UniProtKB/TrEMBL annotation, chain A:
Keyword field: Heme, Iron, Membrane, Metal-binding, Oxidoreductase, Peroxidase, Transmembrane, Transmembrane helix
EC number: 1.11.1.-
Domain Catalase core residue range list: 27-361
Role this protein plays: Has an organic peroxide-dependent peroxidase activity.
Segments traversing the membrane: 20-39
InterPro entries: Catalase (IPR018028), Catalase_core (IPR011614), Catalase_sf (IPR020835), Catalase_SrpA-type_pred (IPR024168)
Gene3D superfamilies: 1.20.1280.120, Catalase core domain
Keyword Heme among UniProt keywords: yes
SUPFAM superfamilies membership: Heme-dependent catalase-like
Protein name in UniProt: Catalase-related peroxidase
Origin: domain of life: Bacteria
From TrEMBL, chain B:
Protein name listed in UniProt: Cytochrome b/b6 domain-containing protein
Family from the record: Belongs to the cytochrome b561 family.
Membrane-spanning intervals of the chain: 12-32, 38-58, 88-107, 113-134, 141-162
Organism: Siccirubricoccus soli
Membrane topology reported for the UniProt record: Multi-pass membrane protein
Subcellular location: Cell membrane
InterPro entries named in the record: Cyt_b561_bac/Ni-Hgenase (IPR011577), Cytochrome_b561_oxidase (IPR052168), Di-haem_cyt_TM (IPR016174)
Pfam families linked: Ni_hydr_CYTB (PF01292)
All copies of domain Cytochrome b561 bacterial/Ni-hydrogenase, residue ranges: 6-174
Length: 363, 175
């Protein structure tokens, strides 16, 4: 050291001690790098999932990376009070709670024609007076295509589109994936046989992932919730839907709400003892007990660009006390993936897109 | 060493926060890069963040009231300056990190759920630009805090093992 050795210091250069200090610091630094994933380049990070979701055609800048095309709505949830015996969630106690929601089609392209959306979704945020919220994103299909994070990522990669041609990068990638993943059969069976409708109002929407309702005594019950439409479906052929133009779903919603509110019955299906709680590809038997939680009333629609849903991340793990997530790996991955997608689009909307990368954000 | 040492309460809060901050930094860096462990980790990150905010307020009050022992008189001037600057940085970052976390969740319109059923009020309006700025600041300043903690630890060990000048024992034994 350059300075005079102080009292008690070793007379010679303390190489061994300095090395020990360096080793402590290097170990901590390496542990930090390991925790942050820099030593695991193959890890499926939220950022990589969102990267893949962003490459399925169209330009998602400033939009959600999945279910990119949608429309906002406002309304209310009228709780029946029947759910209160299953869960202490404040918005399940009989009463009315404000809702900000969004209908969308399952696409990575914010200007995709509505007829291309086989999957349609409803997301809602139900607010309780004490500041707690229940957010949920639900789809019209009754089961999810895959059961694991790895499979979801692989399927998303297989679905990527070449931006130059607008066609799949590898046309055989999805067929190859399907052949290797028998768990997709239930979803594909639905996609191939379910009627196509001309309206968001004519669909049921399912939460797909299971959660636990926790009652006042602490008892936990696995549930899956859904909202069931009250408007009878009037199925059309895909060609008839194409003839309605690219934006028929939004137009139809606005027209229907001009006539009055739309209603869905919100139900919770209770799992049987051996029903799969952590596998969203497998529906529970239809005869399982269903509890009517209340009525979702959709009152007004707003364009997404200026509507109240624009800045809402419908992360399905924003939950009140009394509702807990299952260990379904798809459900648990939705939260960080939605967060990465949310940061990207908010940074783009705020004209600071560079802030969406780095610093652990969307890595 | 001349002057009085750190009080038992000051030492207790220091070592408690040392453990919690290191845990927090590792949890934070791990959770944002993990699609599978994010949910359980964030459930620890938020209550721990609020606990650290309360602890740093207590800590700043203690430091204000009770001060700190003087540095050794033979410590080179640049090391004294570095010691003061790095401690100022540590205090500023310890205070800023939880406030940034709270502020960024507010700007994103999330309910600031500390533990299920316990929600803090928002401290900022919902804004895409504010959220992007605060979220980036929370991440970058987290890295800076980790580096400052490493520097602090390296300097502490240098005092303990190389200089053996009583600076380290002031925080261990209080004298």
């Amino acid at each position: 050291m350059p300075e005079t050795p102080p009292r008690g210091a070793p007379p010679s250069f303390p190489l061994g001690r300095l090395t020990a200090i360096g080793a402590v610091l290097a170990t901590l630094g390496a542990g930090f790098a390991y925790a942050g994933g820099w030593l695991s380049p193959g890890r499926i990070t939220p950022g990589r999932i969102v990267d893949a979701l962003s490459e399925r055609g169209g330009d998602p800048t400033g939009h959600r990376r999945n279910h990119a095309k949608g429309i906002c709505f406002t309304g209310r949830f009228e709780a029946s009070g029947e759910g209160a015996r299953l869960s202490t969630a404040p918005m399940l106690a009989a009463g009315r709670y404000p809702v900000v929601g969004r209908f969308a089609i399952g696409t990575g392209d914010p200007v995709a024609p509505d007829a291309s959306g086989r999957v349609r979704s409803m997301a809602i945020r139900i607010a309780a007076p004490d500041g707690q919220e229940w957010r949920t994103g639900m789809n019209n299909m009754p089961v999810f295509p895959v059961a694991t994070l790895e499979a979801f990522y692989e399927l998303t990669l297989a679905s990527r589109v070449d931006p130059a041609t607008g066609t799949p990068r590898d046309p055989q990638a999805v067929p190859r994936f399907v052949a290797a993943h028998p768990e997709m059969r239930a979803f594909l069976g639905w996609a191939g046989s379910a009627p196509w409708t001309p309206s968001y109002a004519e669909e049921d929407y399912h939460a797909l992932n299971a959660f636990f309702f926790v009652d006042a005594a602490g008892a936990r019950r696995a549930v899956r919730w859904a909202v069931l439409g009250t408007v009878p479906p009037e199925p059309r052929s895909p060609a008839e839907l194409q003839a309605l133009g690219p934006d028929f779903l939004g137009r139809d919603l606005v027209a229907r709400l001009g006539q009055g509110p739309l209603r869905w019955r919100m139900v919770a299906q209770l799992a049987g003892p051996d029903d799969p709680v952590d596998d969203p590809t497998r529906a529970w038997p239809a005869e399982r007990e269903q509890v009517t939680l209340g009525t979702l009333v959709v009152e007004q629609a707003q364009p997404e660009a200026s509507g109240p849903c624009r800045d809402v991340n419908y992360d399905p793990l924003v939950l009140p006390a009394g509702i807990e997530p299952s260990r379904d790996p798809i459900l648990l991955a939705r939260s960080p993936a939605y967060a990465a997608s949310y940061l990207r689009r908010q940074a783009e909307l705020g004209q600071v897109p560079a802030l969406a990368r780095g610093a652990g954000a969307g890595r | 060493m001349s002057g009085r040492g750190f009080s038992p309460l000051q030492r207790g809060v220091h070592w408690l926060m040392a453990v919690l901050i290191l845990a927090m930094l590792f949890i934070g860096v791990a959770m944002v890069a993990s699609a599978s462990s994010y949910v359980p980790l964030v459930a620890i990150h938020r209550p721990l963040g609020l606990a650290l905010l309360l602890l740093v307020v207590l800590r700043i009050g203690l430091r204000w009231r009770r001060g700190a022992p003087p540095l050794p008189v033979d410590l080179p001037a640049w090391q004294k300056a570095a010691a003061h600057a790095s401690h100022l940085a540590l205090y500023a970052l310890m205070l800023a990190m939880p406030l940034l976390g709270w502020a960024m969740l507010s700007a994103a319109g999330y309910p600031v759920v500390v533990v299920p059923g316990f929600v803090l009020p928002p401290i900022l309006p919902v804004s895409p630009l504010l959220y992007a700025l605060l979220r980036a600041a929370h991440g970058w300043l987290g890295y800076l805090l980790f580096l400052t903690v490493l520097l602090h630890l390296g300097a502490a060990l240098f005092h303990a093992l190389v200089r053996r000048d009583g600076v380290f024992s002031a925080m261990v034994r209080g004298r």
